[in-house]
Design brief:
Helix content is about 35%, strand content about 25%. It is an alpha/beta fold and about 350 residues long. A 6-stranded mixed β-sheet has the order 6-7-8-3-9-10, sandwiched between helices.
């Protein structure tokens, strides 16, 4: 595979984390529509002994799209990423990525892929800059080309000022940015982000989200695994909701909320469960235990009728709010994401 050189011109761009540099789309400007590669998973299964960790997952990921795998720890998200990336052999099913099929052609496919794993797995003996130039050798990028590529990517993730720092001197957010820069060394068409912001503070998460959105704008396809509802809502074009290795529902974040829950819900404390169950049955709506109380969906038509019926029982706490993805997961699984 021929790796095309990256060309970045220093300049000004108004707003955003990358305001002093060209956006990702310019770094990937050599890519054309004919280069676009769609990832397709067909009936992926993975079993270990008698335990089925992933059960029949099928979906596609197009260039310039972010697809999210949303589920709790142990739902099979990381195993699914491993099968898509070609480092975990499926028990059944296969992955098609452009002209390549996995398993079987994983090395060729991975030349067009990048991955950010849950662990930073950076080399603590190397500087920030050296981590990139050393890893570039895996893609046969050496010498001046490796140094140029490393410098450009550090600028893009706003780490050029820490180029000579040791890895242990970086904050958690900086390490995540460095791992993302490393994943982009080969100009991948698809990037896998496996729980990329776990453990980061809110500001660092926001910074990382902006980088992901710039990467999407460049035309790169992104597969994101997360258990953060706000992250899924903010970044993903489509979601697959996973529980115990199965896809229990899928759609856009907006569609899932509207279809499964509706526009609004009420959080209630101090009203007996049987009363709420009867109200839900009478008005053909839905309720679940939630925290120290209950959650009930308000029908899109005449929500005030149900709201007033609840209020008539004088709850100790009553909150009306827009429905969200956490409500979707609660209704489908009976539990909330931790």
């Amino acid at each position: 595979m021929q790796l095309l050189p990256i060309s970045v011109t220093l300049g000004r761009r108004e707003g955003g984390l990358l305001s002093r540099f060209k956006p990702f789309r310019d770094i990937f400007e050599e890519q054309t529509v004919s280069d676009a590669l769609t990832l397709k998973a067909y009936d992926l299964w993975k079993t270990y002994g008698d335990e089925a960790v992933v059960q029949g997952i099928s979906f596609s990921l197009a260039p310039g799209e972010i697809v999210g795998l949303l589920g709790p720890n142990g739902a099979g998200k990381t195993t699914t990423v491993g099968m898509l990336f070609g480092t975990v052999i499926p028990t059944k099913g296969f992955v098609q990525f452009g002209p390549w099929q996995l398993p079987g052609q994983g090395q060729l496919a991975r030349a067009q892929m990048g991955i950010v794993t849950q662990e930073d797995n950076l080399d603590p003996d190397f500087t920030v800059f050296k981590n990139l130039t050393h890893f570039a050798h895996h893609y046969r990028i050496t010498g001046a080309a490796a140094r140029q590529r490393a410098g450009e990517l550090l600028a893009l993730v706003n780490l050029e000022h820490r180029a000579e720092a040791q890895v242990d001197e970086l904050s958690g957010g900086m390490k995540r940015k460095l791992v993302l820069a490393r994943a982009l060394l080969n100009q991948p068409k698809i990037v896998f982000l496996d729980e990329p912001t776990t453990g980061l503070d809110p500001d660092a998460r926001q910074d990382f989200w902006r980088l992901v959105q710039d990467l999407k704008a460049s035309g790169c396809g992104i597969l994101l695994t997360t258990h953060y509802m706000d992250e899924a809502q903010r970044l993903c074009d489509r979601l697959l909701l996973l529980q115990q290795g199965k896809v229990i529902d899928e759609g856009t974040p907006t569609d899932l909320v509207a279809r499964v829950i509706g526009r609004e819900v009420a959080e209630i404390e101090g009203v007996e469960a049987q009363i709420l169950q009867d109200l839900a049955a009478h008005y053909e709506t839905w309720y679940r235990a939630f925290g120290s109380g209950h959650l009930i969906s308000l029908p899109d038509r005449e929500p005030e009728v149900v709201w007033n019926a609840i209020a008539a029982h004088h709850p100790s706490r009553l909150l009306r709010r827009p429905a969200n993805l956490e409500d979707v997961f609660l209704r489908l699984t009976g539990s909330v994401l931790e």
